[in-house]
TrEMBL record:
The chain crosses the membrane at residues 134-153. Residues 24-66 form the GRF-type domain. Keywords: Coiled coil, Membrane, Metal-binding, Transmembrane, Transmembrane helix, Zinc, Zinc-finger. It comes from the Eukaryota. This is GRF-type domain-containing protein. Residues 85-133 form a coiled coil. PANTHER family: ZINC ION-BINDING PROTEIN. The keyword Zinc-finger applies. GO terms for molecular function: zinc ion binding. It comes from Morella rubra (Chinese bayberry). Pfam families: Zn_ribbon_GRF (PF06839).
Length: 154
């Protein structure tokens, strides 16, 4: 697990019992940190945990020897790749949430489609019935007209 020191170029690493270091001049146990400065990138060190709060102690001790330029480049590349992976992982989570929302929306749309199909079927029946009624009325009017013509001729 890593936690950032606000505004600093180092990280506290808690990777088990070996991450605890010597006691500083304040009497507080120090923790192993990693430098992300340009000059000492990736190099680990111990420092007083109260350094950012009180600058009285000033305890500092390197854990690692200086790193070669190639090692610094490799570590920087690895850090950049990890940051990209973290962004990608967040994007995947967002896409999964979006996909679940879309699945729910598709389900709702399928139900609405089925409802509209049934409504369409009922409207077609009404139109068909209406057409039959209109034909009957037209036929009745035709018969009535014929009857009036026949009565008028007699």
């Amino acid at each position: 697990m890593s936690t950032s020191n606000s505004g600093s170029n180092s990280w506290v690493t808690n990777s088990g019992a070996n991450s605890r270091g010597p006691q500083c001049l304040c009497g507080v146990t120090t923790y192993l940190k990693t430098s992300y400065t340009e000059h000492n990138f990736g190099r680990r060190f111990y420092s007083c945990s109260k350094y950012k709060i009180k600058r009285e102690c000033g305890f500092f001790a390197w854990f690692d020897p200086p790193m070669c330029e190639h090692g610094k480049r490799v570590l920087k590349h690895m850090r950049d790749r990890q940051e990209c992976l973290n962004v990608d992982q967040k994007n995947v989570e967002i896409l999964k949430e979006d996909m679940e929302s879309l699945k729910e929306e598709i389900g709702s749309l399928k139900k609405e489609k089925q409802s509209l199909k049934e409504e369409n079927k009922n409207l077609k029946k009404e139109i068909e019935n209406y057409g039959t009624v209109v034909i009957k009325y037209k036929l009745a009017m035709f018969v009535l007209c014929i009857m009036l013509i026949v009565m008028g001729l007699c």
